[in-house]
Amino acid sequence: MKNPSFFERSELTQVLWSFRREFFMVGIFSMVANVLMLAPTLYMLQVYDRVLMSRSELTLVAMSLVTLFFFGVMAFSEWMRSRVLVRSGVRLDTALGTRVFNASFESYLSQSSTGPARAFGDLIQIRQFLTGNGIFAFFDAPWAPIYIAVLFFLHPMLGWLSIFFACVQLALAWFGHRHTVAPAEAAGKAAAESGAYLQSKLRNAEVLESMGMVHNLRPHWQDRHEGTLALQSASQSLAHRITAWSKFIRYSQQSLALGAGALLVIDGQLSPGGMIASNVLMTRALSPIDMMVSTWRAFIGARSAFERLEILLGNYPARDPALSRVAPQGALALRNVVASAPGRSTPILKGISTAVQAGTVTVVLGPSGSGKSTLARAMVGIWPDVTGEVLLDGLPIDGWDRTELGPYLGYLPQDIELFEGTIAENIARFGEVHSDKVIAAARSAGLHEMILRFPKGYDTPIGEAGGLLSGGQRQRVGLARAVYGDPVLVVLDEPNANLDDVGEQALVRTVQGLKAAGKTVFLITHRPGILAVADRLLILRDGLVQADGPRDEVLAALRAAQAAAAPAAGQPGGGALTVQPA
Q: What CATH number should be reported for the domain holding residue 287?
């Protein structure tokens, strides 16, 4: 990604820049709070050097009341700046939540991210830093010179002593930055990878437990976990050493400042009140720097999160909300489509080209590993690494806004993914539940009567990932979800894999109904019984088109090829794809 210049701010930077008014207000409140921090110092000077000398109770009461008023204003300023930052954090989440949600899912589909949870974790980390104590150090630090100037006013030696300790703390902060960033990032990356590995195994806990694979996988996770612990231990050990040095410097500063003040009092160059006040003032002057050192890891984490989010939002920009297309009719064309996957030396699909008119039913056949499921994902625009063109009504499918295109597409993946909620919510794609459309989709999938037998009917919760339904029931619910509404292009990947005879008959009726309504249907299957509803056949083998055309012509050509190859091979088909008539 190209790094934006100062005048070409990234989207994330622009959002933060929109909060400049709030940050300005925080700066004003910080100025008031820091200026009023001088009140305790002035109060001590007056008490030690004037009140104790004059023994005037009226002066003491008046000064105490004025100081309490200043403390009240200071507390109000502290409260207001915290309130402004908290509200800004909520607004930041509102402004970026939807964008991060959409961009993270697009990134996950392109296999370049660990998913939405990481992106939202980055957003939360930025928000927490902007509303936490770390950000206050950056607002308080510019006022440290005022305290140092007052120390110079009390005595130059105290001012130079405060500058010396400030330089020491800045050097420690620089050292921490140079030596803790890389170990902390490496430990965070390792922890994320270890967590992702464990989470991927937990999704298949039933398989692991039933076949006793947990014991075999534990050493693989243990290696990753121990590597993560080693990196975290090294990072935390260095951070703790830096923190220890910071405490040593802070305590030394407090004691030496008091000692220097006492020396000046002995020499008659400073009053006892000035000695006490200078100690408090120097501690206050160096407090922001000390806080920066202690919150440096949080700052580094927030900065890394900012950079990741900046790249994510830059690589997956927001769709133009004003862009709206005419409702598609369902004509689909593929032009030299090549689909690849990480870790494979050869593409999965090797230049697929075909064109299908709207209202056509195409059955895709081929042996396992021929690229059928990849073709299905490429046709609906969710395969990440695709070259060539996938055109819906002559327009690239990846140029559509997915929210706008979604209602016109129906997709049933080979691995059915249902979501926690009711049957009606799953069929309605978790949008607004239109009862008539939900029932129509369920009837189309032959699901209506079965749903009515559940205790709560369409309001029956299905559990996480549809765990309360059988495989065939999940497949039918997925089919009803695919045909819900008015999709013009329906892609079904092995829709009859878990269906019994009754379910397959319902599937045939569903496809016939879609065809009668003028919908374009792609149906991937291994079972020849569904061929009766096909208008066209597309046969894949090793990522290439072996046959493509009207059903009867393709079947006739295959039979002729099988008959010609049989005498030479000594067996029917000679190793070619064998298709029995429907």
A: 1.20.1560.10
